[in-house]
Amino acid sequence: MYQHSMEIFYEPNLRLTRARGLRGYNAGFAETLGCGTFDQHQKDLVWRLLGDTPIGRHSVVVDVGCGIGGPSGWIFERFQPARLIGIDYCTASVQEANARWAHRTRRPCFLQGDAHSLPLADASVDVIFNLESALHYPDKRQFISECRRILKPGGVLCLGDICTHRKKFFAALGMLNNLASQFSTHERLWSAGDYRETFHALGFDRIRHEEVSVQAANSLHDGLTEIARDGWKAARGYRRRFFYLCFVEKLLRRRWLTYDLFTTCRSQVSTELEK
Ligand SMILES: C[S@@+](CC[C@H](N)C(=O)[O-])C[C@H]1O[C@@H](n2cnc3c(N)ncnc32)[C@H](O)[C@@H]1O
C-alpha cells in the first residue's frame, strides 16, 4: 500500500541504529532526564508497555511493526516464549532483524507483512505487542480487528502509540505523506479516546491506559544529547532525522503529541458480528 515510502522513511533510522549500536526504533521511557542510556530507555518502554502481561514458556507472541527486532529480542530473551513472530512492513528492517539473529538457533522469527492483514490463523496468539507503529497505519480499525481475529479469547493486546488531541493540525502536516521523501511518515494520528472507543466497539475489555508523553520526551532528549555529544561529523547519514526527532521531543513535552500505552484483552464473549 505505502511500503516504498515507509522504506524511505526508515532508511535514516537504520543508519542511526547501526552507527550507534541501538536495537530499537522507539522513543523510549525515562522518568527523569539523564537517568540512563537511550538503549536502556528503549528497553524500559517495552517493560512499561508489557506491565504484568502474562508470557510463559507456552505462549505465542506476535510483535507487529517489529522494526529491526530490538523489542522482540528483549521479550524473547526475558520470557523464552514457545514462539515469537516479529512482523514488519519494511523489507530492509526485516532483513536487518534476521541478520542480527542469524547466529542463534533458538530465536524469534521475522517476517515481512502488513498489520492490516496479518498472516496468522484465527485465535492462535496469546499476546500481541505493537509499539509506536500504528501511527503509520491508514486503517487502524482494520488492524485492531485483525488483532481480535488472531488473539485467543482472553489474549492480550499491548499497544503503544503516538496520539494527539490536535488532529486538525496534524492532518495538515499529512500533506507530506504525498511526497516520497524521508518525511513521508504516512502518519494518521488518533487520540487516546479513539483507541478506547475502538477497543470497546471491537470486543476488547479490561482496558488499561497510561500516558507517558513526558517520559518519552525525557528519553528522546537523552538520546539526542548522546548524538550531539559525538558531534556533527559523526551524525552523517541521519542529521535531518536528528532535527526531526528534536521537533517530536518538543511536541511531546508540550503534549501536542501524546505517548499512550494501552493493554486490553480480547473478550471471552463473541461480538454480535461473530454470532
Ligand atoms: C517507530 S518503528 C517501531 C519499531 C519497533 N516497534 C520498535 O519499537 O523498535 C515503526 C515500525 O512500524 C513499521 N510499520 C509501518 N507500517 C506498517 C504496517 N502496515 N505493517 C507492519 N509494520 C508497519 C515500520 O516499518 C517501522 O519498522
Would you kindly provide a written description of the structure presented here, covering whatever features stand out?
The chain has 275 residues and is α/β, with parallel strands linked by helices. It has a single domain (3-266), classed as Vaccinia Virus protein VP39 (Rossmann fold), CATH 3.40.50. The chain has 10 helices and 7 strands. It has helices at 3-20, 38-50, 70-79, 91-100, 140-150, 167-173, 192-201, 213-229, 231-234, 239-253, and strands spanning 60-64, 83-88, 109-112, 125-131, 151-163, 204-211, 258-266. It has a 7-stranded mixed beta sheet, with helices on both faces. α2 (38-50) packs antiparallel against α8 (213-229) and α8 runs antiparallel to α10. The longest helix has 18 residues, at 3-20. 43% of the residues are buried. The mean pLDDT is 92. S-adenosylmethionine binds next to α1, α3 and β2.
Task: Describe this protein with a few key phrases.
275 residues; alpha/beta; Rossmann fold; seven-stranded mixed beta sheet; 10 helices; 7 strands; 19% strand; binds S-adenosylmethionine
Please render the helix and strand layout as text:
Layout: H1 3-20, H2 38-50, E1 60-64, H3 70-79, E2 83-88, H4 91-100, E3 109-112, E4 125-131, H5 140-150, E5 151-163, H6 167-173, H7 192-201, E6 204-211, H8 213-229, H9 231-234, H10 239-253, E7 258-266
Parallel strand pairs: 1-2, 1-4, 2-3, 4-5
Antiparallel strand pairs: 5-7, 6-7
